[in-house]
Amino acid sequence: MPVTDEAIEKIKEMIVTGQLRPGDRLPREADLSVQLGLSRNSLREAVRALSLLNVLDVRQGDGTYVSPLDSSRLLEALTFLVDLHRDDSVLESFQVRAILEPAAAALATHRIDLAERASLRTLLDSLGSAPTVDEVVANDIEFHHRIAAAAGNTMLCSLIDSLSGPTVRARIWRGITQEGALERTVAEHGAILDAMGSGDAEAARAWMTVHITGVTRWLQEAP
């Protein structure tokens, strides 16, 4: 194992086993390198790598701390990597969404309250009778975010949000090129919300699957 990878693994082990907790300050570089049996250079590289992943927080003139380790912060690195993907990998993002979002819809059905459902209905109604492609896509992004948030699992919500951004251009292109795509999107959103309103988690799961699978199928067939 390369020495930098070894250093990363040893610091990770300290965090996983509770020797270092969120908010803790790491020992001085000289002391930690002796404690872990590592060179100061390899330790320094490991700290730099873990800071890029938002696991560690390097504060100039103060020291290095373990980050809060909340899911949204840790998944920022994933969002960055997803954003770098080429357009031909957008299909993979939709395929992952097709796994995660039906589950989120089912969870949200059990947890969502009247105020949140009313807010979602207001969001859908705000489109009016003749929305533009940009308006439907913006509404779509917000709709999916709110359902993921209502599921009550912050990591699930962060994952779904991170996969949503790279698919925006595909959603806009579908709205422009596929006849009836906008109307279908709005209707499927309504069906998902109706299922959630009636407390039918499996229907909400099924409608969300239909909704995302439709985009995935179009993407597979689109030139």
UniProtKB/TrEMBL annotation:
SMART domains registered for this protein in UniProt: FCD (SM00895), HTH_GNTR (SM00345)
Coiled-coil segments: none
InterPro entries given in the database record: GntR_C (IPR011711), TF_FadR/GntR_C (IPR008920), Tscrpt_reg_HTH_GntR (IPR000524), WH-like_DNA-bd_sf (IPR036388), WH_DNA-bd_sf (IPR036390)
Protein keywords: DNA-binding, Transcription, Transcription regulation
Segments forming domain HTH gntR-type: 1-69
Gene3D superfamilies: GntR ligand-binding domain-like, Winged helix-like DNA-binding domain superfamily/Winged helix DNA-binding domain
A GO term, aspect molecular function: DNA binding
Keyword DNA-binding: yes
The name this protein goes by in its record: GntR family transcriptional regulator
